[in-house]
Amino acid sequence: MGSADTTVKLQNDNHEIDEYGINLKILPCNNQVKELQTILRDKNTTRSDFKFYADRLIRLVIEESLNQLPFTKCVVTTPTGAKYKGLKYQKGNCGVSIVRSGEAMEQGLRDCCRSIRIGKILVESDMDTHEARVVYAKFPDDISERKVLLMYPIMSTGNTVIKAIAVLKEHNVLEENIILSNLFCTPIAAKSLVTAFPKMKILTSEIHTVAPNHFGQKYFGTD
Predict the structure, then answer these.
(1) Three-state DSSP state, 162
(2) What single-letter DSSP state applies at residue 145?
(3) Does the first or last residue of the chain, that is N or C, have fewer Cβ atoms within 10 Å of its Cβ?
(4) If you ran DSSP here, which 8-state letter would residue 14 be given?
(5) Could you give the CA distance from residue 33 to residue 39 in angstroms, rounded to a whole number?
(6) pLDDT at 10
(7) pLDDT tens across 131-190, in order?
(8) How far apart are CA 12 and CA 18, in angstroms?
(9) Which parts of the chain span the membrane according to its record (predicted)?
(10) Cα–Cα distance measured from residue 133 to residue 166, given in angstroms and rounded to the nearest whole number
(11) Coil vs helix vs strand at 121
């Protein structure tokens, strides 16, 4: 999916991906991905269409995020008795969604990893100071031993994600064991995150100065 040039050097809104370091990766862009991004940004898209095409883009991002997880080599026996040298995921992965918009990505993860465990973090902004604060967090008991796919579709400033990652680190999750799965990210958010957490991997579909902040309301029908 995508050309070789796209995977090596890719521009989004005139920002070179190289400036964000090797741990920020962008979904290889092609006409299908661009169409999905266009539909989700169009104010005239109906809610049913929005959810359908959002789920398609989420699935692509989740599958690319899973490519960042470690694999081990294995050998299986085919129905004909032949040996096949293949790969399998290493055990010890889980998902964590940042409520509420991050929950939109949970089904895409379950579709790819049937029995994966999923935790949740709720981050709210203080009405007076607008400071982001964590009000709820629920994780698997052994999360410190797992690779974590952190799911949050829209990042404008990165503040919510920074708070969520701080909570994961308080639960002894290693920074290098976190993979952030995201749909749309601004340059400001990207720079903030790679600066604050240089060892964390980030996978997004697009870096653009304008983020579709209506995503959660449109997806869940609360607009």
Answers:
(1) helix
(2) G
(3) C
(4) T
(5) 10
(6) 42
(7) 778 899 999 999 999 999 999 999 999 999 999 999 999 999 999 999 999 999 999 999
(8) 11
(9) none
(10) 11
(11) strand
